[in-house]
Design a protein that fits this description.
With about 190 residues, this protein is an all-beta fold. The protein is built from no helices and 22 strands.
């Protein structure tokens, strides 16, 4: 409530699930910073196929720093893998999204990137595999609305918007990890 901050100092996780959804995590403030200094992760979902249409879904992560809050920290956000082992027609494996909403998003209030990663979706050769998406919105102006993100795993973005005038978006993967822009990405007009 009010301008209270939320700090994650240790690890936070949901369990792996062999029967479907691994469960999600939501971190939110009404008007305060969210600081993630620990590893926050959702469990994997591995479903043994029955021959019918089976579904494996790893949990999503939603972080909202309300009103004037920022998202930062030396920790990381990670969603688990989703796998259906049979891979028959109709099977679906979907990795949970990570959704971030704040004034600005980075590791330390400057240009150091905040760390995210996504598990792999595997619905088999005949099934459907859906990658988790990184969805972000900031509304701070200038450097106070910047987005800095890094991932050591392949990364797919959904809708990404730096809505404040002069704010920028910087998203990078390391090593040979692919970066796929699947949704709209925009910065604000500056008059």
């Amino acid at each position: 409530t009010s301008t209270s901050a939320l700090t994650v100092a240790g690890t936070m996780s949901t369990a792996a699930n062999v029967a479907g959804d691994s469960g999600g995590i939501t971190l939110a403030t009404a008007d305060g910073n969210v600081v993630v200094n620990g590893a926050v992760s959702t469990g994997s979902s591995t479903v043994t196929g029955t021959g019918a249409a089976d579904t494996a879904t790893s949990g999503a992560i939603v972080v909202t720093a309300g009103t004037n809050g920022t998202i930062s920290g030396t920790g990381s956000l990670a969603t688990g893998a989703a796998t259906v082992t049979s891979g028959t027609t109709g099977d679906t494996a979907a990795v949970g999204n990570i959704t971030l909403t704040a004034n600005e998003i980075n590791a330390n209030g400057t240009t150091t990137p905040f760390v995210v990663s996504f598990g792999t979706a595997s619905g088999g050769a005949l099934g459907t595999s859906t990658a988790g998406q990184l969805i972000m919105t900031t509304d701070g102006t200038g450097t106070g609305g910047d987005i800095y993100i890094t991932s050591a795993a392949p990364l797919t973005t959904g809708a990404v918007s730096a809505g404040g005038a002069g704010a920028l978006i910087n998203i990078a993967t390391t090593s040979t990890s692919a970066l796929t822009v699947a949704g709209t990405m925009s910065t604000a007009a500056n008059v």
